[in-house]
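Record passed on underneath.
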Amino acid sequence: MPKIIRSMEYSYIGYTFTVLPLQPASEILIAELAEAGFESFVETETGIEAYIQEKDWNENILEAIFILENEAFNITYTFDKIEQVNWNKEWESNFQPITVEGICTVRAPFHETPSTEYDIVIEPKMSFGTGHHATTHMMIQHLLELNLENKTVLDMGCGTAVLGILAEKRGAKAVDAIDIDNWCYLNSIENVARNECNSIQVFEGGANLLVNQTYDVIIANINRNILLQDMKAYVARLSPKGILLLSGFYEEDIEIIHSEATQLGLKLAHQKVKNKWVALRYQL
């Protein structure tokens, strides 16, 4: 999925990376490039496209990208200067709304209002969570299957807050949305207001913010290492018979995730797999 930049018209250097195997190499490459100053990414069938403002670029910028030296992956690239482009318009021309299970649409503000039961308007900017990624798509499916009426919900690692917004639209009485990334925190506040949600509070931080609250449903779409690190904190904040939704990892990670979950007293209730990504539903 693209990560959207806020700036309007600048000259950019654009890189096209061919990546084998695609995952987890593409995810790691995006993370390293972002640290180096790249602002916008588009995942393709063969790898990724990455863009950086010309003023922030230098010919040695890839020297700090360690995955390029990893012999476990075959990554090649080309790059070229791209003249001034209105990136917001470019994004708008390529970003399409998605519909999940025929009843929930996730779209941008410039798309027409759909006829689906749930209409979520998201402008992701630099945040993760448009519904296009397999993990977000599966978490939406999980939420559509659950009875959230009058439930308390935590959206951990909320990104754009798309999952927390859906939880409120599904009847949750109180939703806390937390992300450690400042872009995500600010973008979530904007999206909560954009969707006229009144029961969502957005916080900037990590699992250290989980002190006295309890939740009927906790959503954590992050990554394997953070889930393993913080799962104990999540379970400690679950209400009796509470539900924990976990995603952000691959099929090969199921065993280690499940081992930690069962040690914490969780029981697996349902499993979804999409494009080798996994979303698990546990119950306390």
